[in-house]
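Minutes, structural biology subgroup

Action item carried over from last meeting: produce the structure token record for peptidyl-tRNA hydrolase (Streptomyces phaeoluteigriseus). EB confirmed the sequence was re-checked against the source entry. Recorded below for completeness.
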Amino acid sequence: MRRVSESPFQTEPHPRDEAPQFVLPLVVRLEKADPPGRTDALETAARAVLVLLSDERALGDGEWAQTVRDWQDARIRKVVRRARGAEWRRAGELPGITVTGKAAEVRVFAPVPLDGWPKELAKLQVSGTDLDDPQEPSAADPGVPVLWMSPEVEMSAGKAMAQAGHGAQLAWWELSDEERSAWREAGFPLAVRTARPERWRELTASGLPLVRDAGFTEIAPGSCTVVAEHPALRSR
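Output recorded by EB:
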């Protein structure tokens, strides 16, 4: 099982940079009249990454397995694009998995080469995806894994969705097979919340999985963006 110490989110040069580079496409449905809340979108994107990683097609000899392995052997890039109307319907015709939240819908696809996006996805907009919460999210339910977002780094909703996905993936790597199965069978419950500054300092020093962004877009390389607090990891 891959360990966080081997995380490809670190910014230092690494042999993985010489491997073919892939990206995990995520598409969020963003209709003009009824966009989802920001936290709902972040949580749904994180769950979509976990659903993809645990799907039979991504494991063993599954049809996506080799591509997923190649992606995880390089930098773990995720790109979130937005679609509405006919764009969303066309995206839904491609092989992938649609994950729904309270109102959010996110479709995740098997990794693709950086320069090999399907044309239906390549034309979708990536920049400027932003969302708001209609009200401040309530405290996470006790015992639910929490992906803590940094209070110090400003990100668009699209960038934050990708970072939440990174945090979920780091937690997934750290869990045992039994812990992964239990999380999957429960439907991958999780919460995304922004930590208060004093809490953030505690979290980043806790030894829990920590995302340090590679700095490809929006934010500076090495920025700490997410800490993944899964109960099974807290108890170790």
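Discussion: Strands lie at 22-29, 77-83, 97-100, 105-108, 112-113, 146-149, 191-194, 210-212, 224-229.
Next step: EB to file the record with the rest of the batch.
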